Amino acid sequence: MFNFLSNSGVKKISAKEAKNRLESDNTIVVLDVREKTEYLGSHIPNSINLPLGNISAVEKVVPDKDTTAFVYCLSGGRSASASGQMSKMGYKNVYNLGGISGWHYETVSGK
């Protein structure tokens, strides 16, 4: 089993499992909760930049609370916080992907 609950009740997902799921399901939303300058430097393809400080605006970006969302940052701290906040807002399929530092697959830079 790749997914497990953290102490906060947020599901975690490994980079490998996330990559496999992203290849077979184009409805998954990938949220990068780092600051815009970090995002522009390098990010997972097709991810959406929504800095942690703006996570309350997630309902504008992901209006359907049943949408599967993978959340990441640099090392996992901000993504854990964002995932927890999203769960409290009623999102049912939020996964903490951790940090891009553990993502050993394709990344892109710029917008």
UniProtKB/TrEMBL annotation:
Residues 24-109 form the Rhodanese domain. It comes from the Bacteria. CDD domains: RHOD (cd00158). PROSITE patterns: RHODANESE_3 (PS50206). It holds the Pfam family Rhodanese. The keyword Transferase applies. Keywords: Transferase. One of its GO terms (molecular function) is thiosulfate-cyanide sulfurtransferase activity. The keyword Transcription does not apply. PANTHER family: THIOSULFATE SULFURTRANSFERASE RDL2, MITOCHONDRIAL-RELATED, THIOSULFATE SULFURTRANSFERASE_RHODANESE-LIKE DOMAIN-CONTAINING PROTEIN 3. This is Sulfurtransferase. It comes from Acetobacterium bakii.
